Structure formats: C-alpha cells, structure tokens
Amino acid sequence: MTVSELFSGYDLFLVDMFGVIWDGVSWIDGTMEALATLVKMKKSVIILSNASMATAQMLKKYAPAFTGIRQGVQFSDFVTSGEVLGHILRSGALSFSSVKSPKTYALFGNQNCSSFQNTEYVRANSIDEADFIYASIPQLYSEQKALLSKELQDFLIVSNMRPEDELVWDSTSIEPFLGPLEELALKKKPMLVANPDKFAFIGATHSHDSKEYTPKLVVRQGSIGEAYAQLGGEVKFIGKPYAEVYRYALNIAAQLHGLQFEQLNRLRIAMIGDTLETDVLGARNATAELGIEIDAILAQSGISGRDMSSAGVDLANKQAIWEYCSSRAITPDHVIDKLLLDANVLF
User: Fold this and answer.
1) Is domain 94-237 given the CATH code 3.40.50 in the classification?
2) Distance (Å, whole) CA 260 – CA 263
3) pTM for the full predicted model
4) Tag placement on the chain: N or C end, fewer CB within 10 Å?
C-alpha cells in the first residue's frame, strides 16, 4: 500500500510540523506537494504543533520559509500549543494543585516570551514572588554560557541571534539546566510547560555568513518539565500528548465540517507525527478522553525514526518496528516512511 492509498480513507488529518514536514532547516522534500494534494482532495488538514509560541507568531518567525505554504492551499488551519496556552490564560482557567488561582509567574529559559501578553498574568520580580514558573525555550545567551564550566560549554551550539546581535545558544544536553532546576525545586513552585517535546531538530549556524546548515537535536521544554518532575516539582503540560490541545484542534475541525463536537466520529481522523511519546500517544489519549476516534500514523522522518535507527532497528522491517514500538508500549496504527503520497506504508 502507498501513503496515497492509505490517506484516501481519511477525512481529517492532524499533522505535526517538526519532523514531519519541517526538518529544522527547511521543508522536507515533497511534503508541501503532499499537503496541497490532500487539500485539493477536499481533506481537512490541521497542522498541530507543540511550538510554545502563538500561531501568528509562529508564522511570522518562519515567514521566509512559509513563503510557499498558505492556508487553503497546504493546510486548513494551524494550531500551536502556544495558541492553546493563550486561550487558557485569557480565560483565567490556569490552575495547579498547589496554587488554585495563580497570577504571577517567573520565566525559566529564553526571556523573549509573548504568551502572557494581553492577559491578567504579571511577571514577578523574583522567583520567590512568583506563583509559578513558566518554562520558556531552554536557551542561553552568551553571557550565561560564559558562566558554565568548559565541559558543559561543549554541549552547546549556536541557534539564532537576538535583535542586538548577540548569540543565543541551544543545548544538546539537559546537564546545563540541572543545577538551576534543583534550586527551583527547593522553592516548591509549580511549573507550566507549553511544549512537551523533549527534543527538537534545529538548524545550527555558527555565524551570520554561514551557508551551511545541519539539523541537530537540542533540548526542549519537555526535557525541562520531566527533569523538574523528577526533582519533585509539580508540572502542568499543555500540548501533545495531552488531550487539551486535541480538544482545541477538534473544535476547529468541527467548525470546518459544520458538525457538533460530538458528531466528529462521523469523520475518519488521523494524527500524523514523528514521535511515539507525543504524537502517537497523544492520539491514543485524545481518543480515550474525548471519545473521538483518532488513528495514529508514525512518520519515520523525525525523532522516533532516529531513535529506532540508533537502536539498530531496520526501518524497512515491519516486524522489527512493531517489536520496538511494543517495547515502548506505544503502538501506532500505521507507519510510513515520510509524508509523501508515493511513499511506502510499512504497516
């Protein structure tokens, strides 16, 4: 069976961005054409990303790359975890078991965070004054990197630039963040994480003039949240694999199809993602919690494909893939090579 034949049976696709259609540097070859074909076939395509920025900010940030992707051509709608977070914050619905009505927050990570704009939440002057901690993108500015030991500096690579032309560094290891997280855990502040992804592929460049881009795997907020939870901290995650982001996306889908939410089972729905722990498990969680059947399709073009390859799994061997997924207790309904309509369906 080809991907095209498999997809013909579905009405609605929830499509992950990073690892499925974007490789950290550019669009994965052929994916834009595949999405455009699905839209022409009158399929609904909602890009569902764990990015912690709002959808409008996401599109603006990737403006040069997004030149070739347009609503109504390659996608029907676009939902990010940051968009869902903004909805929750504006509605005042955020709560933790330890803090029922939080109002003040402190940032951990990149200080450029717009999620709280136009909300009632106020940034505290210090951690002690904050009701909770918001885990922003775990990046370091040059002055922060300089304070690390030489061994930890070796884990870091250039990611992008601040407006004032100072380097911002992404980490390929959680280690630089463990010390600060241990200190935060002692203060017993709950943490909010709007991107459950533990790692992401990003394009690294070492100077303004560099034309060589190599996607590398760097730490993201999911790793920060996991480490904080292991230290005994309370963590609230927003995004895949948690059902809240699926409810938001499916409400949009219901509007697109002129249906009530509870009528969505009239549609055949698939989540296409590259990660077992977020995309596939997310489809399973949403099905169980929302009562809307969502099939899980794993694309080997990203995180889980890399993990399987590193584990010595033959990516062309159906049985080997199935056994690997079963060992993680997360099994997709189907596995495909890539989001290409002429690609193979492994199962």
Assistant:
1) yes
2) 5
3) 0.91
4) N
